[in-house]
């Protein structure tokens, strides 16, 4: 059973930075590729970033390339999303999940409660 808890969101001005964390309860965390997703009001949940189980490969949605960095620390059962140069359009609830890295980053469905990111202009 996988349980995920996202944290680190908050209110920040445009151009600012936040680092999100996602901690998994399962000891098998290191065997999963992981992804970050976000959902804004009135919109569907969308892919943001992905990382392989070893951290050797990463992938990003085009709008966040060069601004966001995904990383993981398997010893801490944690995946991170460093977000720099934040824009108002980044405002959303951010979720993490285990994913299939080689099948269009399809999430497994172990969503946590999410963490709210609000970027003011």
Secondary-structure map with pairings?
Elements: E1 4-7, E2 10-13, E3 18-24, E4 33-39, E5 46-51, E6 58-60, E7 68-73, E8 78-83, E9 92-100, E10 106-107, E11 115-120
Parallel strand pairs: 2-11
Antiparallel strand pairs: 1-3, 3-8, 4-5, 4-9, 5-6, 7-8, 9-10, 9-11
Structure description:
With 121 residues, the protein is an all-beta fold. The chain is built from no helices and eleven strands. The chain has strands at 4-7, 10-13, 18-24, 33-39, 46-51, 58-60, 68-73, 78-83, 92-100, 106-107, 115-120. The strands form two sheets. Strands 2, 4, 5, 6, 9, 10 and 11 form a seven-stranded mixed sheet that branches. It has a four-stranded antiparallel sheet with strand order 1-3-8-7, with no helix packed on it. Strand 4 and strand 5 (46-51) form a beta hairpin. The N and C termini lie far apart (40 Å). The model has no long low-confidence stretch (mean pLDDT 95).
Give a quick summary of the entry.
This protein has strands at 4-7, 10-13, 18-24, 33-39, 46-51, 58-60, 68-73, 78-83, 92-100, 106-107, 115-120. It is 0% helix and 50% strand.
- Got a strand count? 11
Strand content: over 45%
Gyration radius over CA: 13 Å
SSE string, helix = H, strand = E?
EEEEEEEEEEE
What does the largest sheet look like?
Answer: 7 strands, mixed
The low-confidence parts are none
Described by its quaternary structure, the protein is single chain
Helix content: under 10%
Helix tally equals 0
The class by helix and strand makeup works out as mainly beta
Give the CA-CA distance, first to last residue.
Answer: 40 Å
Shape: globular
Task: Summarize model confidence as the mean pLDDT.
Answer: 95
